[in-house]
Amino acid sequence: RRLSGRPAVTLLDVFRRHARLRPRRPLLLFQDQVYTFEDVERRSNRAAWALWRRAGLRSGRTVAVFLPNEPAYLWTWLALAKLGCPMACLNCNVRGRALRHALEAAQATLLLASPGERGQRGGWGREGFVATKATSVIGDS
Questions:
Q1: Which carries the bigger pLDDT value, residue 10 or residue 114?
Q2: Inter-axis angle of helices 37-53 and 11-21, to 10 degrees?
Q3: φ and ψ at 107, to 5 degrees?
Q4: For residue 75, which of 14, 128, 133, 10 has the smallest C-alpha distance?
């Protein structure tokens, strides 16, 4: 029913409405940390700005997301939705040929990952995720 309206109501629309009406209401509990709607809105706005400004991300570009089950996944998803970028969700437990196949199938121009996902070769940044050209990561096996 909600999708039949013009324009369709999206999850981003619902989130923004709740963030506006209930900014201090808890949205997410992760370990011992509570994130309110306001917290997640602010973090997703910062992530969207950083992806737009630093990574040159624009609407319509597909982004592969290689994050574990952590709060950053939520505000990364919201940031991409705010930018109008489709998100290819990659299972962070997949490696090797399966990961290469998933990246190629997604046809993503950018890969977002947490620092720990690079394994023994070192971290990908200090901010919780890093933007990297997907093709350069595919060649890294």
A1: 10
A2: 130
A3: 50, 40
A4: 128
Distance between CA atoms of residues 71 and 12, nearest Å: 16
Domain contains 104 = yes
The owner of tokens 């990908």 is 124
- pLDDT for position 138: 30
Q: Indicate whether 92 belongs to any domain.
A: yes
Describe the crossing of helices 11-21 and 71-83 by its angle, rounded to 10 degrees: 110
Q: What does the alpha-carbon distance between residue 105 and residue 34 come to, in Å, rounded to a whole number?
A: 36
Q: How deeply is 66 buried, as exposed, middle or buried, from its count of CB atoms within 10 A (0-12, 13-18, 19+)?
A: buried
Considering the entire predicted model, what is its pTM? 0.77
Nearest partner of 24 among 40, 7, 46, 8, judged by Cα = 40
Residue 125 lies in a domain: yes
If one counts the domains in the chain, the total is 1
Is residue 4 in some structural domain? Answer: no
Q: Are 64 and 106 in contact (CB under 8 A)?
A: yes
- Where residue 40 sits, what CATH number does that domain have? 3.40.50.980
